[in-house]
Amino acid sequence: MNDLFEKINNSFLDSNTVLILIHPNPDADCIASAFCMYNYLLKLGKKVDIFSYDKIPKEFNFIPLDNLIIHEIKKEINYDLFLLLDLNTVERSKINIDVPLNKTVIIDHHKIINENYPFFCKAFYIEKDSSSNCELIYRFLNEVNYNISPLEATAMLSGIVLDTENFTTPSTNQNSLKVASKLISKGANEKIIAKNLLKNKKIASLNFIGEIFEELNYCEELKCVWCALNQDILNKYKLSYHEVEGGIKNFLNKISDCNFGVLISDRDDGNIYFSLRTTKENFDVAKIANFFGGGGHKNASGFFIPGKLIKINNNWKISINNN
């Protein structure tokens, strides 16, 4: 076992209670990462909880994690260790308690916002060039000789498939393809992934996306395309944000004659979210996200600001603090 994995594993072995943290608006990558690490820590005999600010979208029900999730931590509960998966700052998780960095382990594949931040942690494994967090989880579990089950393999493969948009993003490389192959050899069920994540489209969601794209906007100055949505239009089609975000982002990511695409969304939680995507080798959307306090990758990043997104006379307006 290499020194880094041994240090991380020793942090687990030295702890009795562990809290796993994932990011809001959870996707397949962080859900699968949490599921597999939860199982590994249980095998080590640890008491494990998982914190998620948001509910797990129902399309991920094939990964049995929802009943394990805690949405608020009781302040009288003490944890020996905090494990951050698919994020590299505690603040990103929106957890309601203080988390001491010296009790924190990070496994993540995003660009570090604060270069000094991880060095205050107990241990960290951050590979910003990795295609997905599940790729890192697989490497760790393989290194500690954990027997990955077919369900865990399916979960991790789903994280890789969705984060690489079915192996089409620039982050897809030989390593990600090799890990995917290893997961299939361990029993990953591609049909389950296709049924739940790639083909699970309602007619309403297709009509919704058609309406959104009718109002596609282009900013000449920035050479970017953008579209917006709020809860009103989601309610109109009886859809959730999680059911439509993937299709919109993937479409924006494939428009060739612009630098980047932006999905602006209001999810009725007091914030406006900006999801940025690009396929340009010479363009880095993470720099834009970092400027506004967000983060992510060169090709896929995001940030949010407090406010509300309102549509007036077919024009989108941002209202800060409802003014």
List keywords for this structure.
single chain, 323 residues, alpha/beta, inorganic pyrophosphatase (n-terminal core), Diaminopimelate Epimerase, Chain A, domain 1, 6-stranded parallel β-sheet, 6-stranded mixed β-sheet, 11 helices, 21% strand
In short, what is this structure?
This protein is an alpha/beta fold and 323 residues long. The chain has helices at residues 3-13, 28-43, 90-93, 133-143, 150-163, 174-185, 190-198, 203-214, 231-236, 241-253, 285-291; strands spanning 17-21, 47-51, 69-70, 81-85, 104-108, 123-126, 217-219, 224-229, 260-266, 271-277, 295-296, 300-306, 308-312, 315-319.
Description:
With 323 residues, this protein is an alpha/beta fold. It has two domains: 3-197, inorganic pyrophosphatase (n-terminal core) (Alpha-Beta Complex); 203-322, Roll (Diaminopimelate Epimerase, Chain A, domain 1), CATH 3.10.310. It has eleven helices and 14 strands. A six-stranded parallel β-sheet has the order 3-2-1-4-5-6. β11 (295-296) and β12 (300-306) form a beta hairpin. α4 (133-143) packs antiparallel against α5 (150-163), α5 (150-163) runs antiparallel to α6 and α5 (150-163) crosses α7.
How much beta, percentage-wise?
Answer: 15-25%
Mean pLDDT: 88
Helix content: 25-40%
The CATH architecture category of the largest domain equals Alpha-Beta Complex
Order of helices and strands: HEHEEEHEEHHHHHEEHHEEHEEEE
Taking all Cα atoms into account, the compactness measure Rg is 20 Å
CATH homologous superfamily designation of the largest domain: inorganic pyrophosphatase (n-terminal core)
Largest sheet: 6 strands, parallel
**Helical segment count:** 11
| Distance between the ends | 57 Å
How does the helix and strand content classify structurally?
A: alpha/beta
